[in-house]
Design brief:
Helix content: 25-40%
Distance between the termini: 44 Å
Bound molecules: aspartic acid
Largest sheet: 9 strands, mixed
CATH architecture of the largest domain: 3-Layer(aba) Sandwich
Strand order of the largest sheet: 1-5-2-6-8-11-12-15-16
Number of strands: 21
CATH class of the largest domain: Alpha Beta
Number of domains: 2
Length: 358
C-alpha cells in the first residue's frame, strides 16, 4: 500500500514531550465541503489550519493516510490488516496511536484490531466525528484532541490505557465492548456491558479498575489472518425452515453468529433445533449472541433455550455482535483445531466478554 505520510510541525510553542502516529482511514471527520458543496476527504497536511490548538499539545504528530480514504461502510479485511500492520511496523517509534475512522463500522474495526494486536501495551484510540472537521459545530476537534491526550497519557512512565479503545463524545470505551447506537446525535457509542474506561470533562477521569493493566515486557505480535466464511443470522418472529436451511447450506460456511432474543432464546420448534443440530454436526460453529444491547445469553434460563446447549450451540455471554463476528473471523483463520476454536470463542481473548459458564 502506498501511504501518504505527513509530519506536522507542532513544536511551535513548547517542547515536545511525546509522539503519536495518526492513521487516517477516512470517514466524516476528515471531510471538507468542496466548491460544489459536496463532502470530500481533505488534505491532512492542512489540519493545523483546522485545529491550530494542536500546536499547544507538546506532541510530535505524524499522520499516515490511506491513499484512498474510505467511508467506513467499505472497510474490508485488507483495511484491517493495513491498520494493524502500520501500528505493528511503527510500534517502537510512538507513544500511542490514533485511528481516524468512520463511525459506521468503527466498533467492528476496533474489535478486530484488539485481536490482531496480540500483546499490545500501548494505547490505540479509534475516533471519528458525526460532523466533518470543517463544519461549524463539528465534534471532530474535541474528539481528536482528547484522543491525542489519551494516546499519550502516562502514569509512572507507563501508558495509562494500553489497549484498543474508542473515544467519542467525552467517553472512552473499550473498543471490543462498544456499539454504534446513534446516527444523528453526538453520543454515537455505548458500551452497555462494560463500564467506560474514562470520561472527559474539565479533566480526563480514568476508571483505573476497568482498564487492562499494563504488562511489563509484553511483546506485540501481529496476527494478520482473517477468515470471512462466516455470517450473522438475526432471528425474527416468522423465520422459516427454508431460510435457516439455506443459510446453513452456504458453501464452505464455517461459523454463524446467531442473534437471538433476550437472554439467548430461540423458537423451540423441532425443525429449528434439527436444522441447528444438522449444521453443527457438519462442522459449522454456532455462537449465540443476544439482540439486546445489554445483558447476556444464559442458555437454559428459559425452556426456549435449554436445548441449544445440548445440540452444541455456544454461548456468547455478554459479547456484542461486532466483537463476536470479528472474533470468529480471527480464530477461524488462526487455529486449525475446531475444538480449540470452540473453547476460545467462549473464553475472553482481549477483554471482549465476561467469563461465562453456560
Ligand atoms: N458513513 C461514515 C463512515 O462511517 C459515517 C461517519 O464517518 O461517521 O465512514
Amino acid at each position: 500500500m502506498n501511504y501518504k505520510i505527513v509530519r506536522l510541525n507542532t513544536s511551535a510553542k513548547e517542547a515536545i514531550t511525546s509522539s503519536v502516529l495518526i492513521i487516517y482511514t477516512g470517514g466524516t471527520l476528515g471531510m471538507a465541503y468542496d466548491a460544489t458543496g459536496a463532502l470530500v476527504p481533505f488534505n491532512f497536511g492542512q489540519i493545523l489550519e483546522k485545529i491550530p490548538n494542536l500546536t499547544n499539545m507538546h506532541i510530535a504528530i505524524t499522520v499516515i493516510s490511506f491513499p484512498e480514504p474510505i467511508d467506513s461502510s467499505n472497510v474490508n479485511m485488507q483495511h484491517w490488516m493495513d491498520m494493524a500492520y502500520i501500528i505493528y511496523e511503527n510500534y517502537d517509534t510512538y507513544d500511542g496511536f490514533v485511528v481516524l475512522h468512520g463511525t459506521d463500522t468503527m466498533a467492528y474495526s476496533a474489535s478486530m484490531l484488539s485481536y490482531m494486536l496480540d500483546g499490545l501495551s500501548k494505547p490505540v484510540i479509534f475516533t471519528g466525528a458525526q460532523l466533518p472537521i470543517s463544519a461549524m459545530r463539528s465534534d471532530a476537534r474535541e474528539n481528536l484532541m482528547t484522543s491525542l491526550e489519551i494516546a499519550t497519557a502516562k502514569a509512572n512512565g507507563k501508558p495509562i490505557v494500553p489497549e484498543v479503545c474508542i473515544f467519542f463524545n467525552h467517553m472512552l470505551l473499550r473498543g471490543n465492548r462498544a456499539k454504534k447506537v446513534q446516527s444523528v446525535h453526538f453520543d454515537a457509542f455505548e458500551s452497555e456491558n462494560y463500564p467506560p474506561l474514562a470520561e472527559s470533562g474539565i479533566v480526563i477521569d480514568y476508571n483505573y479498575a476497568a482498564i487492562k493493566p499494563f504488562k511489563e515486557g509484553a511483546q506485540l505480535k501481529y496476527r494478520n489472518r482473517v477468515d470471512n466464511r462466516v455470517m450473522v443470522l438475526k432471528l425474527f418472529p416468522g423465520i422459516t425452515k427454508n431460510v435457516l436451511d439455506s443459510c446453513f447450506a452456504i458453501k464452505n460456511l464455517r461459523g454463524v453468529v446467531l442473534e437471538t432474543y433476550g437472554s439467548g432464546n430461540t423458537p423451540s420448534e423441532k425443525w429449528f433445533l434439527q436444522s441447528l443440530e444438522k449444521a453443527i454436526d457438519k462442522g459449522i460453529i454456532v455462537l449465540n449472541v443476544s439482540q439486546c444491547n445489554g445483558g447476556r445469553v444464559i442458555q437454559g434460563r428459559y425452556e426456549t433455550s435449554k436445548d441449544l446447549k445440548r445440540v452444541g450451540v455456544l454461548s456468547g455471554g455478554d459479547i456484542t455482535t461486532e466483537a463476536a463476528i470479528t472474533k470468529m473471523m480471527h480464530l477461524l483463520a488462526h487455529d486449525p483445531d475446531e475444538e480449540e476454536i470452540r473453547r476460545k470463542l467462549i473464553t475472553p481473548l482481549a477483554g471482549e466478554m465476561s467469563l461465562t459458564s453456560n
